[in-house]
């Protein structure tokens, strides 16, 4: 495993993280760099950094988000529903499941992308344990094991540590050697930084 790594801070409700997910994986493969997956509690981050949750934003900002999402979906050839049936529910359990899988040495990329896909493309409620159990089974993961591990205090502590240590203010955020890149539209700049440091 490469000693070089990208710390990847993301919210399990982040439509932008979903749009950037495959490109981040491709970047890491090209540059032979490890991704350290760190789900965060974005509402908590916002409370400390001045961010505003989507539903509390001015109508103009909400409308512009939809316009930007449509542009990026066209550019990337990815479809998402900008206003799904269950938009941005509580993501704590989903986050802890991803952390539990990571700590167990299981594949994380496919799992977190499947959870994001469920919300943004399939109108599923990712705050529901039943939904998350279904997604785990679809991903051929041991749902009982990961839900049990997700409920342990150590997993919750790690989730809170990722949230507190992040030093970021939005999702997705990428940190490489102390330099922060916020947003999937900064992946090219992230790759330039990684390549220059080799």
Walk me through the structure.
- The protein has 198 residues and is an alpha+beta fold.
- The protein has one domain (5-196): Glutaredoxin.
- It has nine helices and four strands.
- The protein has a four-stranded mixed β-sheet, sandwiched between helices.
- Helix 1 runs antiparallel to helix 5 (109-122), helix 4 (92-103) packs across helix 7 (143-150) and helix 4 (92-103) packs across helix 8.
- The longest helix is centred in the middle third of the chain and has 18 residues, at 59-76.
- The protein is globular and about 40 Å long.
- The two termini are 15 Å apart.
- The relative contact order is 0.20.
Distance between the termini: 15 Å
Q: Ranges with pLDDT <50 over ≥5 residues?
A: none
CATH 2nd-level architecture: 3-Layer(aba) Sandwich
> Average pLDDT, to the nearest integer?
93
Element-by-element helix/strand order = EHEHHHHHHHEEH
The Rg value, from CA coordinates, equals: 16 Å
Structural class: alpha+beta
- Order of the strands making up the biggest sheet: 2-1-3-4
Q: What is the C-level CATH assignment?
A: Alpha Beta
How many DSSP H or I helices? 9
What is the name of the CATH topology? Glutaredoxin
Net shape: globular
Q: What is the number of beta strands?
A: 4
């Amino acid at each position: 495993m490469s000693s070089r790594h990208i710390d990847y801070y993301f919210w399990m409700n982040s439509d932008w993280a979903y749009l950037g997910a495959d490109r981040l994986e491709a970047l890491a493969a090209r540059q032979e760099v490890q991704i350290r997956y760190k789900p965060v509690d974005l509402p908590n981050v916002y409370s400390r950094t001045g961010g505003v949750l989507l539903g509390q934003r001015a109508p103009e900002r909400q409308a512009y988000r939809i316009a930007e999402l449509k542009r990026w979906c066209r550019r990337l050839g990815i479809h998402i529903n900008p206003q799904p049936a269950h938009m941005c529910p509580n993501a704590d359990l989903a986050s802890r499941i991803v952390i539990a899988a990571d700590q167990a040495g299981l594949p994380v990329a496919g799992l977190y992308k499947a959870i994001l896909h469920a919300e943004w493309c399939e109108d599923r409620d990712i705050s529901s344990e039943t939904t998350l159990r279904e997604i785990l089974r679809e991903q051929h993961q041991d749902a009982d094991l990961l839900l049990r591990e997700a409920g342990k205090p150590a997993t919750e502590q790690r989730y809170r540590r990722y949230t507190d240590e992040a030093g970021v203010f939005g999702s997705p955020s990428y940190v490489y050697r102390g330099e922060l890149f916020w947003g999937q539209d900064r992946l090219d700049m992230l790759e330039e930084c990684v390549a220059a440091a080799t």
